[in-house]
Amino acid sequence: MPAPTPALLLITVATLFLPGIVVALGAGLRVPAAVAAAPLVTYGLTTATSAAATVVSFAWSPWVLAVGAATLGGVLWAVRSRGRTAGPRLLRRPSPGDLLVAAGVAAGSALSMGVFLAGMGGVDRANQDWDYSFHANATRFIADSGDLAPSALRAVNDW
Question: Which of 24, 32, 109, 145 could form a disulfide with 98 if both were Cys (CB 3.0 to 4.6 A apart)?
């Protein structure tokens, strides 16, 4: 298996961070906190979208995530800014606390990547445990069918 290209890694990181940053900034978090929270917010948004897919059937695509993030971020921003005359200043000189948050996120990322690389040997050598197999098959199922409802994944995990 060839090693992932830098472009693929960049797209993966952007997919993980950008939707969460949009929603976190819409909710009023400052930029360093929004970047730190972005992956968890993106996972939460994806989980909420898959839960909605159990009620309303729709095909999954990256545009669903992008539109969902933009819509939720816009709604949060509109609710927060109602009644205000001036919008918040999102970009300003970082405070020492902001720099500490950024350093913590960078250190945590470096530690996680170091553990990953030590355990796996590289990003092109995925763990062959059950979790990897399930998620690889679930990703392929969603890509082929467009159905991301948790109940649809019985096709992958039906013992």
Answer: 32
